[in-house]
Design brief:
Nucleotidyltransferase, domain 5; 5-stranded mixed beta sheet
Length: 393
């Protein structure tokens, strides 16, 4: 049976999964894992589809760069993992620009176009493409497939994507793209399976991880999202600033003398929850911290999430459901509780016990707005696309 390898490469982690390709059915998960703590303290862990831990080890110094991590994963998979040469390798590619609105074969021409988009996603795109090059070198005969985080949002109305800038800039592609599309695509599918073609009606999905965005769905289609031209927009994130008055950027360049490189480093790596708290970008650390600065960072986080929910509800012309997903959304009941309480004006009635236990529905039966916790799975979305393109090839 043909096997599918899925890679999701980031600046500090490499997630991977192996699937058996089905004949028309969903790919079957064989194993999944991750290398976390890149580049300084690489921790390798992999588990079987049944949850059995197959490996859990700290990698030696010098193996923390992404290219080394990719090669280390491929070595383990080919050895102890028993992976034959995969027929197809699927990659998460953060930015597809205006050109790539569907999964695509990653040939030399496509990769060249994607490299041009690196300035729009400097924290992710270089690492995504580095993983592609590493696997092309190891498995030159495998079909390489890219799945784009921006593609899901191509359905948005044009007005949702426009900025009030001179038209030549708009025509050059300076507009809102949106991100986390693979996650939203999975959640839309889960809503379709549960509620039928209407996909739960008017829904706001909150993807709350180290990166944070919210998406307004109408019958499973993206209508608006909080990330825009780059992955900096929207609520504050672990280390990213979220939305800012553009005048702040002008001030930092003109009055403080920050160079573009310094500004980029500050906005992407030293702001957000880390910047406000001065302690950490990890919500778990901040929730446990007695420091007032850390509490203020969480207060700002919740305030901005509630603000965005209000704006997206206005875009939808009403609201039927709120869905929490990703690491914080799935595992931080205090954050969920505070966000839902801030949305009581919409008719949300939180079920305190259900939220604390993390059950799927966390609102009371009488709540006008239903709130759900739905785990996301970007890997299966990539595996499905890889299987489809393999079949066409």
């Amino acid at each position: 049976m043909s096997q599918i390898l899925v890679l999701n490469a980031g600046s500090s982690s490499l997630k991977f999964a192996v699937y058996d390709a089905g004949s028309g059915d969903d790919p079957a998960l064989v194993m999944s894992g991750a290398v976390s703590g890149l580049p300084d303290a690489a921790q390798f862990k992999v588990s079987s589809a049944a949850g059995k831990v197959l490996a859990d080890t700290q990698w030696p110094d010098g193996s923390g760069e992404l290219s080394a991590a990719v090669l280390g994963v491929l070595d383990w998979l080919a050895g102890q993992g028993g992976l034959a040469a995969p027929a197809v390798i699927g990659h998460r590619i953060v930015h597809g620009g205006l050109e790539f609105a569907a999964p695509a074969r990653l040939d030399a021409k496509t990769l060249s176009r994607l490299e041009e988009l690196i300035p729009l996603a400097p924290l992710h795109q270089p690492f995504n493409l580095e993983a592609v090059q590493a696997t092309r070198a190891r498995y030159p005969d495998a079909l390489q497939v890219g799945c784009f985080d921006t593609a899901f949002h191509a359905s948005q109305p044009r007005l949702a994507r426009l900025y009030a800038l001179p038209r030549p800039l708009i025509e050059a592609g300076v507009m809102s793209y949106g991100f986390h599309g693979l996650s939203y695509e999975y959640i839309a599918g889960a809503l379709r399976a549960r509620f039928g073609p209407a996909c739960g009606g008017k829904v706001i999905v909150a993807h709350l991880g180290s990166g944070v965005s919210l998406c307004a769905l109408s019958e499973g289609r993206s209508m608006a999202t909080t990330m825009g031209f780059s992955a900096l927009d929207g609520p504050p994130m672990a280390t990213r600033s979220g939305a800012l008055d553009p005048g702040v950027l002008l001030y930092l360049m003109e009055a403080r003398g920050l160079s573009p490189a310094e500004l980029s480093d500050m906005l992407y790596r030293r702001s957000g929850l880390l910047g406000v708290s001065g302690e950490s970008g990890d919500v778990r650390v901040l929730l446990a911290s007695p420091r007032p600065e850390s509490r203020e960072a969480l207060d700002l986080f919740v305030y901005r999430l509630a603000q965005e929910i209000g704006g997206l509800a206005a875009v939808l012309g009403g609201l039927d459901r709120i869905v929490f997903t990703a690491g914080v959304g799935e595992n931080a009941p205090e954050i969920r509780a505070r966000v839902l309480d801030a949305c009581a004006w919409l008719g949300v009635q939180r079920d305190e016990l259900a939220n604390a236990m993390g059950t799927e529905r966390i609102t009371t039966p009488s709540s006008r707005i239903e709130a759900l916790i739905l785990p996301t799975d970007e890997q299966i979305i990539i595996a499905r696309a890889a299987q489809t393109l393999l079949g066409r090839a």
